[in-house]
Write a structure and sequence with these properties.
- By secondary structure, the chain is mainly α.
- It is built from four helices and no strands.
- The chain has a domain of about 80 residues.
- The chain is flat.
Amino acid sequence: MTRRAYLYFVVTFLLGAIVGATAIFYYGWRTGLWHRPFNRQVFINHVKRELSLSSSQVDQLQQIVDETGRKVADARQQNEAQLDAIRKESRGRIRQILSPEQIQKFDEITQRMDARRLRVPH
């Protein structure tokens, strides 16, 4: 083979690798697969090791982290309830301007959107 053929082969391979890596990155980011949830124990172990915490400090840190986790969960639940109310109101207003056939298709669209929203971790 000539040098030109080798060059075309290498360029094609590199472009394929770049396009493939970009697609994988986009898929992982868009679907939420690369967003790891907060791990309390990993955080506590890290802080304990980095700051050389005493056992009483670790116990207090555990309590603080647990309490904060409960508060965050409560805030998310309240926020989600408010967002659900807004979604219901908006969808009701949209249904008012649609024909019966359009309403059926709109309901299918909203079901897919809700399924996608629930699938992606927050």
